[in-house]
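Shape matters. As here.
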Amino acid sequence: MAVPFKASYPLFLCLILFCGVNCTEFEVGGHGGWVVPKTKDDAQMFNQWASQNRFKIDDNLLFKYEKDSVMEVTEEEYEKCVSPHPLFFSNNGETVFKFDRAGLFYFISGVRGHCDRGQKMIIKVLDIEASPSPQYANGTAPKPHSKSGVAELTPMRIMTESTVFVMSTFFLQLYV
């Protein structure tokens, strides 16, 4: 006997809730975006930003930039700041990169000279079970509009949580 469609709503709702809140999107560098550091003192700004966050499998990085590119490269290519055959390349101005495994990920700008000036970053993705909220290395969530370079509460992150709430409310009303 076929199960009525209404009976499958709770299962569908659980699937939406599970998928909707188990990943986080981090805007690289906060509101500053994926840019060339202005001074030599800022040369480690992306690695400092990365070290203040906790990344897990299925999280996304959002690279925002103008007239630039982002490449995932090997460790050796990261050190040399050059890659003739990157593992990943994008130059569309707003690149989303999804972590599909635990381990180290190396990113550099594809524009000549930008990596040498500090536009590069290493991300460590932890092999942990997905959790319903973002995890930060210092145990606290960053403050909105922070100038520290820590990942901020982006519109995408807020939208994801709001969407899950609205969709769950909608499906609960259909079910009842």
Notes: The longest strand covers residues 120-126. The radius of gyration is 19 Å. Strands lie at 25-27, 55-56, 60-64, 70-73, 88-90, 94-98, 103-108, 120-126. Confidence is low (pLDDT under 50) at residues 8-20, 138-166.
